[in-house]
Amino acid sequence: MADEPPLRSRAARDAAEKALMRVVHHYGGRPEFVLLGGLVPELLCTGSKFHHAGTIDVDVQVGLEIACGAVNAERLEQALRNAGFAPEDTKIWRWVADGTVGTPIVKFELLADLQDQPADATIAFDACDQLGTLNLRGTGFAAHDFEVCEISTWDGDAAITAEVNVSGLAGFLLAKIAAAYSRRKSKDRYDIAFVLLHNDSGGTAAAVASAKERFGGGIAALLTALNDLQANFQDADAQGSRAYVTQMRMDHPELNPEMLAADAVIAVEEFCQGLRHVSDGYVSD
Prior knowledge:
This protein has helices at residues 10-27, 40-44, 63-67, 70-82, 140-143, 169-183, 186-198, 203-215, 223-231, 239-251, 257-280; strands at residues 34-36, 57-61, 85-88, 91-97, 107-112, 122-124, 132-135, 146-155, 158-167. By secondary structure, the chain is an alpha/beta fold.
């Protein structure tokens, strides 16, 4: 997943959202998978006056699809083909839409977090020709915290509306923390800071409370990743702080970079400290 600024744009996000809606349409009802990744922040921050940079990828957690058996996996594979997707080379967990001139190429990535399988392993689905998933640690948080959302978009002259399982605030943030630690990508750190600062639930305090309610002592598994996240927002010159400021200034050049950096540093510090308190002393409030 290349971290290129042109692919983080309104046009890119619209293309990804349209592609998702086409897959859901051909699936014939709400799929079991859970949407996570760059399409989610805008859905968690609908009340913000700032817009999220977006993404060209559609990332889904397919643990629930796997639990439902081969019939669901076969149904999802056919829906992807009918929506114009095909596997990218031998990566059966990454499908790419047929591109046309002037249209961004959308990637649809299927992720799981199966504890009985090796991390980063590719797992082929039974009863499917070429469909599989990448076993990516941390994505399981999204599968255990999601809400059913109605998403609407325009595809040509037609309005498309569909129900989709979308990662909740806690599930999204914890999955992103794991991703930021393993992938080392600036876009993950930007996403975390953006959602902490602009979510509809009430900012950083609400994010900590949601994580405590949803996952409790299970947060302890992320302590190394949390330490890494805070180190990347240690001050205004840290990598995470710079990533947030850079993207926000691209989208909103009128904003003050010093204030943006300070907001990000404070939000991440409060979030990490709050989660450490949850994991260290979960039995006592």
